[in-house]
Amino acid sequence: MGDSVASVDRPAVDFALIGHQECWRAAADVLAVLRGPEHPPLPDDEIKDILPWIPPRAVCHVEAGSITGAKARGVYIDSFIPPDRLEATHMRDNLARVRGAASYAIKTGAKIVSLGGFSSILIEGNFDQLPERHSTVFTTGNTLTVGFIVQGIRKMCELEGRNLRRSTLLIVGATGDVGSGCARCLAPLVKRVLLKARNVERLRRLAAELEADGVEVEIATGLQQFSAEADIVICAASLASPSLLLGRIAPGAIVCDAGYPKNLSPGAEMPDAKVFFGGLGQITGGMRFKPDFQGVLNRHPFPDVVHGCLLEGMALALERRFEPFSQGRGFITPERVEEIETVAARHGIYLAPLYNADGPVEEGVECLTAWSRG
After folding, report:
1. pLDDT of residue 270
2. What distance lies between CA 241 and its chain's CA centroid?
3. Which of 42, 74, 145, 226 is geometrically suited to a Cys-Cys bond with 15, CB 3.0 to 4.6 A?
């Protein structure tokens, strides 16, 4: 495999994005671009054999544009975490891969680094696991992710004619950084909050925090334990594959799948549920990839759509504000969300058009680019 980003170590890299592919089809597409069009596609079994041996490396340069006319230069670094090795049993190896990708980002001279997908989950609350940073700062990007999830919920309620203040909100993965941030932002706006997570002590602490502000809260470690059905659901659990089966949700519930990989099992039975993929933004100033990974790294039905965790670093780079905006678990507040939303909007980074596995959820909105559902 040739070095498609031969000049990655050149100076003046504003931002770096660290990510990995959520499915084998996406990983195959990345390898195909890296190998070049002159080489035939690799068989699936060879891809699964090769990928675990690829060290973290930069695969392309990224240029982000602002509606102000500003530009920021960056690099995308793939940690090459195999899509079937996201379980806790592979945590040590995956953490080593993220550390390797972080070291690579530091060597590029990137001023700010966004941690995408499982990278942010692995590092969440463990920033001391990262290598010595010198002048490079890291952000999980979770604050902007929460902002786009909340905006998406509000927009879906408008589209469906729902009254948010009369709704019962369920958050799956409630004690994670994203889940707890969503809870703090949305709890004051709904009738009741249901919090589901594995760690009971963290659940109790979050519930006590919300109840102190007068919020009606119920907690559980199992979805069937709740006394009420939810009509708005946010799925933000750390799952290795789409495997979540929802229970205790009302017919026609609005469901935001904000997982990476996706949370919802393909076989989940949700009568008339209104599902959308959350946490995504669109950079209206445009992006350019070199080599051309358009539609490969951003596998969405609309142009220039990126996960909020990566967009946070790009927005801060365009703002020339190189700081670790999102670090650790439990520090995302409505005030912080509003602050990063303002920065993003100043550069034309807004909530992406809402869609799910079947396409756009809003009538009259058409996909503007070809896309793959692999």
Report:
1. 82
2. 14
3. 74
Phi and psi, residue 244, nearest 5°: -80, 125
Pairing of strands 305-307, 57-65: unpaired
Burial zone of 74 (CB within 10 Å; 0-12 exposed, 13-18 middle, 19+ buried): buried
Distance of CA 83 to the CA centre of its chain: 15
Angstrom distances, CA of residue 354 to CA of 98, 274, 359: 30, 11, 9
The burial class, CB within 10 Å (0-12 / 13-18 / 19+), for 167 is buried
Q: How far apart are the C-alpha atoms of 94 and 123, rounded to whole Å?
A: 10
pLDDT-derived band at 1, boundaries 50, 70, 90: low
Under DSSP, the state recorded for 124 is T
CB 28 within 8 A of CB 86: no
SS3 label, residue 258: coil
211, two tokens: 């109840």
Type of residue numbered 313: G
7 residue type, one letter: S
Residue with tokens 């965790």: 309
Give CA–CA dist 226/76, Å, rounded. 42
Which residues, including other chains, have CB under 8 Å from residue 233's CB and lie 6 or more apart?
A: 169, 170, 171, 172, 246, 249, 253, 254, 255, 256
In three-state secondary structure terms, 315 is helix
Enter the pTM of the model: 0.93
Sheet holding 137-139, edge to edge: 137-139, 112-115, 15-19, 71-78, 57-65, 287-290
Q: How far apart are CA 116 and CA 17, in angstroms?
A: 7
pLDDT 10s digits, 256-272: 999 988 898 887 778 78
Q: To the nearest 10°, report the CA torsion of 327, 330, 333, 338.
A: 30
pLDDT over 60 (residue 9):
no
Q: How far apart are CA 322 and CA 115, in angstroms?
A: 15
Closest CA to 263 of 328, 168, 178: 178
* Diameter of the chain measured on Cα atoms: 63
Report how far residue 197's alpha carbon sits from residue 312's, in angstroms, rounded to the nearest whole number: 26
What is the chain's alpha carbon radius of gyration, rounded to the nearest angstrom? 20
Distance (Å) of CA 372 to CA 114, 231, 288: 24, 30, 19
Fill in the amino acid letter for 343: V
